[in-house]
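Lecture notes, part 5. Sequence design as translation. It can be helpful to think of inverse folding as translation between two languages: the language of shapes and the language of residues. The source text, in structure tokens, appears below.
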């Protein structure tokens, strides 16, 4: 019993050492459009099969990893690596996003839904983004920043979205024709809410 008491004391003591003054902060000011988007951002698992327009697709891809008016990316990248790749599964084809040309380059017409639609709600969504990179440490952070931009854009347009890791990354690496040093990070589903 004494040993248990010492163990509990040793676990609680570090918390007591860091306990200090508590400063109450003002409530967040959610009056700006950005703060409202952040407040309303959510992950959704319900999608309509309604198509997304090419303009909407262009906008969400630009938000994810486009080139802004300063000539830099719409997201921060560690060491300015800019090594993120964004692929789009759209209209039964796989496309690579080319931000510099603001265009899609067809990778394949192969049906790959079995590698990304391991959850039923994914099957209806008209757009799936697949993020890939070559830096095991920084590329996942880049993908997270891109996905958050897509979340905010989707929220602004009344679209549902969710990020997912439950995909067959090894098969997707092959289907996306990634280089040996590149890997699939995650998938982001985008579509209109189911009615």
């Amino acid at each position: 019993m004494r040993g248990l008491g010492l163990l509990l004391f040793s676990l609680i003591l570090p918390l007591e050492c860091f306990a200090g003054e508590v400063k109450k902060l003002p409530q967040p000011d959610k009056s700006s459009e950005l703060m409202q988007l952040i407040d309303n951002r959510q992950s959704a698992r319900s999608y309509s099969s309604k198509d997304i327009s090419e303009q909407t697709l262009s906008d969400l891809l630009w938000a994810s990893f486009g080139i802004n008016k300063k000539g830099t990316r719409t997201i921060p990248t560690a060491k300015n690596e800019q090594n993120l790749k964004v692929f789009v599964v759209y209209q039964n084809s796989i496309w690579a996003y080319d931000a510099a040309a603001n265009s899609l380059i067809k990778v394949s017409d192969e049906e790959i839904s079995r590698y990304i639609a391991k959850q039923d709600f994914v099957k209806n969504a008209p757009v799936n983004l697949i993020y890939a990179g070559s830096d095991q440490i920084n590329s996942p952070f880049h993908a997270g920043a891109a996905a958050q931009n897509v979340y905010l854009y989707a929220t602004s347009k009344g679209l549902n979205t969710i990020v997912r890791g439950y995909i067959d990354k090894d098969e997707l690496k092959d289907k996306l024709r990634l280089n040996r040093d590149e890997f699939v990070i995650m998938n982001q589903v985008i579509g209109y809410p189911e009615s």
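The translated text above is only one of many valid answers, since several sequences can fold into similar shapes. The chain has one domain: 42-191.
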